[in-house]
From TrEMBL:
<dbReference type="GO" id="GO:0046872">
    <property type="term" value="F:metal ion binding"/>
</dbReference>
<keyword id="KW-0378">Hydrolase</keyword>
<dbReference type="Pfam" id="PF01557">
    <property type="entry name" value="FAA_hydrolase"/>
</dbReference>
<feature type="domain" description="Fumarylacetoacetase-like C-terminal">
    <location>
        <begin position="34"/>
        <end position="234"/>
    </location>
</feature>
<dbReference type="InterPro" id="IPR036663">
    <property type="entry name" value="Fumarylacetoacetase_C_sf"/>
</dbReference>
<dbReference type="GO" id="GO:0018773">
    <property type="term" value="F:acetylpyruvate hydrolase activity"/>
</dbReference>
<dbReference type="InterPro" id="IPR011234">
    <property type="entry name" value="Fumarylacetoacetase-like_C"/>
</dbReference>
<keyword id="KW-0479">Metal-binding</keyword>
<protein>
    <submittedName>
        <fullName>Fumarylacetoacetate hydrolase family protein</fullName>
    </submittedName>
</protein>
Amino acid sequence: MNAPISTAGYVVEPLPIPSLPVKGSDKLFPVHRIYCVGRNYAEHAIEMGHDPSKEPPFFFQKNPDNVVTDGQFPYPTMTSDVHFEIEMVVALAKGGVDIPVDKALDHVFGYGVGLDMTRRDLQGEAKKLGRPWEVGKAFEASAPCTPLVPASEIGHPASGAVSLKVNGDLRQEGDLNQMIWKVPEMISYLSRLFTLQPGDIIMSGTPAGVGAIVKGDVLEGFVEGVGRLEVRVV
């Protein structure tokens, strides 16, 4: 979902502001940046060929306009191996730098359910060549999301089931308490690398079981206490 902006004073017409709906409200949450934490569940790190005990947290970005909320994922070009990754989305209402861990949750507006869709073949080629991942991660419609649920309504989920079904078959299953880096730690660490801003969202990592999709598949994601996401591959 995109919110229109005034075109006055620009030499080309600016694009609408990428936004997420807020559940139970007609207000929109403007998306500033999308930070994704990599390999934040041990079993997923292992299935990707890494030892999670030896890694500090690391992050990559998607583009704000990669967010989609219409329940459809157009199968992208230049790939034959697109993977799903179900994640809890953390939306920030306040920014800052050097945010202490014990103050980090004060910066959270709310939570959602999202998919980090990945052109795995292109990501794999980039890894082999030592190149950035954007071609595999930051493409159009690569971040399907639900509306956000305010933390004032649900608190700050630290445990609860995370799952994804493809055409009714369970493919990913985990629990928020299995995250290596918890939400406060992610926010604090990121704020040492970047100046966080209101409107930033963090995709908090995915459990094991990621896999490929084809056109016609229906993906059903779930994060306990946060919501459900249904996306059809078109």
